# Entry
Amino acid sequence: MQPGTDPIRAIYDFGSASSVFNGMAKFVDHLIPTNFSILDKEKIVATAKVTFLGIYVPTPGQYEPTSEMTQVRYARVSGAVIAANIITNPAVMYPEFAKKTSVEGVVILGVTIGRDGHVNSVRLISTPNADFAISAIDSVRRRVYKPYIVNGEPNEVETTVAVNFQMRFSGVEEGGVRH
# Structure
């Protein structure tokens, strides 16, 4: 597009649906679509035309956040810090095939811990092996932590947990795995 010229048509493809901008206008130094259509395949399923553009100036205090809006809902806490808050740490089972073949590795999990200290969700980030992942997720899902306190209130926590599957000369390390 040449500087100073208005675009005639812009098409954005969203899979089977497309958005077609047939007209644009300059508003506060930005080009905005003023006449557009939504197509599903080749059929127009909706059209719209902008008839007014204006600047809205809110009154002072109109959009001040409430105390509920500014409350900490969750905290991002390092795995090393949250590990000190484990109350219940179920043993991790070392997969049989890994014992027999002396396979080792680390499973990295994204974990959300609720206000009550129970694990709400576990997300696999990386694993060297599916059997390690299954064993690590099973154990971490059953963990219980001391609630994480911020400003005197328990908060939901997002953290990363590394489950290390490591063999020792005499077999599997006592307890199976380290956090």
About this structure: The chain has four helices and twelve strands.
